[in-house]
Amino acid sequence: MKVAIYCRLSEEDKDKQDKKDDSESIQNQKSLLVQYAVDRSWEIYNIYSDDDYTGSDRNRPAFNQLLADAENKKFDIVLCKSQSRFTREMELVEKYIHTLFPIWGIRFISVVDNADTDNKGNKKARQINGLINEWYLEDMSENIKSVLTNKRKNGNHIGAFALYGYKKDPKQKGHLIIDEPAAEIVREVFNLFASGYGKTNIARLLNARGLPNPTEYKRLNGLRYSQPKRKEATLWKYFAISDMLVNEIYIGHMVQGKYGSVSFKTKQNKPVPKDKWIKVENTHEPIIDMDLWNRVQELVKLKVKPFIVGNIGIFSKKTKCKTCGYTLRSKKCHGNYYLECSTRSIDKNSCIGAFVPVKELKEFVIYKLQELLNDYLDKDKFNKKVSEPVNNPQSEYYEKIEISIAEYNKQIANFEKGIRDLYFDKVKELINEEQFLEYSRDFHNDKHKLEKLVAELQDEVDTHNKKSQANTDLLQLADEYSNITDLDRETVDRLIDCIYVGRRNPETNEFVDIHWYF
């Protein structure tokens, strides 16, 4: 039997001599599992090790390599210290340990909690372990959020990177101190803007002097920084200047909590409404005095253009340069409006410089929209396809399904609460292990049946809703835009995800790619 050993450590490695070394905990796990395999005369195929990763992280490199090798049936057994070392997510427990591993002929064993997929009798125990691990993740996530929120409210800086112009105080955790060389540039930017220089002009001046932008400055000075995604990331850009001019951290106020996590199961973040940001005043030494700050804020307000003024703003933040990927900015020349790539305006060697008149772009978008509608909205076929009425009995049928789904979900929640209460009764020794497994088995069986039923019903409802919505959307598009002659911002927002502008194709004479929402 070939065995794959998997080890994981989620805490920071304070006992490493070198980053490339294994931590002591990982070494102990390896030693335990290797001995376990040797005692049973199993051949060790490979040892997969993820150091400093959480059990909810799906991007663990060794973990993903193990799954790929398992699918290719390169070994017979996956051996871990505990099920939580493999994953703390119930979804992954069900997907791999209980579904795909058996299909691939892989046996899963965790030593400490006696989980073994060859032992059919302990499947419920493995599921309960997965449920408890997921509760642990959720509770830990909420605890961390609570701690971070309290730190923010106390004015402590908790970000991984200090804002350009500041650095982390080595003597006081959560406190920022001025980084004078960078702070001098910040003061210059504010003074230039207050003197009437535009944001692009300021970026051009800084680039002409060869001054590194905030990311490059941190890299050159050995400070922590976010890895740039583009080669042009060493240049000062319009948006770097724009963001700097309105950041209250430069006047000594700590403003945090602008983004929040989508879920404890993912590292994705989403913007938080401004009224929910956490702001604490006078937490550190300001770089910009209040007189200069107030003058700059007044100028910022004056320079902000309305979202829709004639043709200005119709394609705002919707158009990007096909070469460098940056958002095009509006420009007015001799009474006409244009969109151009800001990269070329600050450094002509970095980009070909996407450029398009707004009027020409409007005409092209309208032409392409009409062309699309004519292509796939053939009147006879389309009307036949979407004019089939959804009769009342059918609508009532799906309404009843949705009511049933809501009721079943309440029952599922009750079963989950029952399992949780049983677990705490076991911890308090009100019931023994055997009673716990017996009682929870019934809860799990009933819960699983309901979940399966809900999934089937939900699929049926979703399919119906998608079909109905698709028909409705197509009808609306046909009715509203088949004879369109002009564009406004609302129409662009509704129909277009993004427009890429690049070099003109000599054969088609086109240089614009439109990504529609439909």
Descriptive report:
The chain has helices spanning 24-39, 61-71, 83-86, 90-104, 123-153, 180-194, 199-208, 214-220, 238-245, 290-303, 342-346, 358-376, 379-386, 392-427, 433-481, 489-495; strands spanning 2-9, 43-51, 77-80, 107-110, 115-116, 166-168, 176-178, 254-256, 259-261, 269-271, 278-280, 319-321, 328-333, 336-341, 355-357, 496-501, 512-516. It has 518 residues and is an alpha/beta fold. A hairpin with a 4-residue loop joins strand 4 (107-110) and strand 5. The radius of gyration is 30 Å and the shape is globular.
Net shape:
globular
Uncertain regions: pLDDT < 50 for 5+ in a row?
11-22, 306-312, 384-393
Strand content: 5-15%
Strand pairing plus helix content: what structural class? alpha/beta
Mean pLDDT figure = 78
Radius of gyration: 30 Å
Number of helices: 16
Helix content: 40-55%
State the distance separating the first and last CA atoms.
Answer: 52 Å
Largest sheet: 5 strands, mixed
Trace the largest sheet across and list its strands.
2-1-3-4-5
Number of strands: 17
